[in-house]
């Protein structure tokens, strides 16, 4: 790993080389709003900061002025400040941070609430401090708490010469369609574990079987020594991955696996709800389940609720 790779280690690998190249080229004419989905939380944040570097690093700006891809150096003070969350023109907000937490423990990532959204809107009228662009990172948004995001829609609608936005989400279905429709969407590669996880495979198979038959999984998860929190988090990630696979028309790389098979009927034609609506529901339930896990709800409880709702949705549509 060289010096540059150490600044943003989660996106240093070959997996991300293509996306870094895409961003360096996009920076020649930056889209007003970029949406980064897929991967894991760390990779999304680092890729967003890479994008901020591409929009502000002196080396990248010089390359862009020559009409060449704006690859940031990841070694200069500007890049270092951006990676550390200390650059004045790079602002990060997270809808999952509570107002109280924000006041007691202010950090480089701020809470995203109505007050912040209003402050940000008035700040957008001023020019950035440096010669590059102001970059606003927004994460932890969801249809359930979109008030502040709605307040920002106006700002996203009005093209600004010196501000660009980055939305970060596990899946685009977690965001308001109005936000997604005005974004340039990029999907990150999923992080692969070096060794196949036999334990996870078994849980995936059990959940997929439950979604077909309605049997087995709930008892297995609730049993003593059953599903623990890290396994539950990984299982939910597997579900997300399967959902993205299905949403990509099965075209994304990698073996589909039992969960993708089980979720495929979500996008089948017919049924009461539109395929996109069904997929959006599944995405929202995944978001809620992950949030419950973070709040310390028992893993078996979380997965039971998620799996049962999904089973009813799949079965209801099959019967329609
Ligand atoms: Zn630099």
Give a topology summary:
Layout: H1 3-7, H2 17-26, E1 33-38, H3 41-54, H4 58-65, H5 77-83, E2 90-94, H6 99-104, E3 109-111, H7 114-123, E4 134-139, H8 147-157, E5 163-169, H9 177-181, E6 184-188, H10 198-213, H11 217-222, H12 229-247, H13 257-263, H14 275-294, H15 299-319
Parallel strand pairs: 1-5, 1-6, 2-3, 2-4, 4-5
Helix pairs in contact: 3-5, 7-8, 10-12, 10-13, 10-15, 12-13, 12-14, 12-15, 14-15
Task: Give a short synopsis of this structure.
By secondary structure, the chain is α/β, with parallel strands linked by helices. The protein has 2 domains: 186 residues, P-loop containing nucleotide triphosphate hydrolases (Rossmann fold); 122 residues, Up-down Bundle (Zinc Finger, Delta Prime, domain 3).
Average of the residue pLDDT scores: 83
Shape: elongated
Distance between the termini: 55 Å
Structure classification: alpha/beta
CATH architecture annotation name of the largest domain: 3-Layer(aba) Sandwich
Please state the CA-atom Rg, rounded to the nearest Å: 21 Å
DSSP strand content: 5-15%
What is the tally of beta strands? 6
Helical proportion, percent range: 40-55%
Point out poorly predicted stretches: none
Compressed to H and E, one letter per element, the order equals: HHEHHHEHEHEHEHEHHHHHH
So, the CATH homologous superfamily of the largest domain? P-loop containing nucleotide triphosphate hydrolases
Q: Structurally, how many domains make up the residues?
A: 2
Biggest sheet layout: 6 strands, parallel
Which cofactors or ions or other ligands sit in this model? zinc ion
């Amino acid at each position: 790993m060289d010096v540059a790779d150490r600044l943003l280690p989660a996106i240093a690998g070959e997996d991300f080389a293509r996306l870094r190249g895409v961003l360096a080229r996009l920076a020649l004419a930056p889209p007003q709003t970029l949406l980064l989905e897929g991967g894991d939380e760390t990779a999304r944040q680092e890729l967003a900061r890479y994008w901020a570097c591409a929009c502000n690093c002196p080396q990248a700006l010089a390359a862009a002025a020559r009409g060449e891809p704006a690859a940031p150096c990841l070694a200069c003070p500007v890049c270092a400040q951006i990676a550390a969350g200390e650059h004045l023109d790079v602002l990060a907000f997270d809808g999952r941070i509570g107002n109280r937490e924000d006041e007691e423990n202010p950090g480089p990532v701020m809470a995203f609430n109505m007050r912040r959204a209003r402050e940000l809107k008035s700040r957008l009228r001023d020019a950035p401090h440096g010669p590059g662009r102001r970059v606003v990172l927004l994460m932890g948004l969801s249809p359930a708490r979109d008030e502040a995001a709605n307040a920002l829609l106006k700002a996203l609608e009005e093209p600004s010469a010196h501000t660009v936005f980055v939305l970060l989400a596990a899946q685009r279905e977690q965001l308001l369609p109005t936000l997604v429709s005005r974004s340039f969407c990029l999907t990150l590669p999923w992080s692969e574990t070096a060794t196949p996880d036999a334990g996870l495979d078994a849980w995936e198979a059990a959940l997929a079987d439950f979604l077909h038959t309605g049997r087995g999984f709930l008892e297995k998860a609730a049993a003593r020594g059953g599903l623990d929190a890290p396994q539950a988090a990984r299982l939910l990630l597997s579900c997300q991955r399967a959902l993205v696979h299905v949403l990509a028309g099965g075209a994304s790389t990698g073996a589909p696996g039992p969960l993708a098979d089980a979720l495929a009927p979500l996008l089948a034609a017919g049924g009461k709800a539109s395929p996109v609506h069904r997929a959006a529901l599944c995405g929202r339930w995944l978001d809620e389940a992950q949030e419950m896990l973070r709040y310390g709800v028992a893993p078996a409880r979380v997965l039971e609720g998620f799996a049962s709702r999904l089973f009813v949705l799949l079965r209801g549509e099959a019967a329609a």
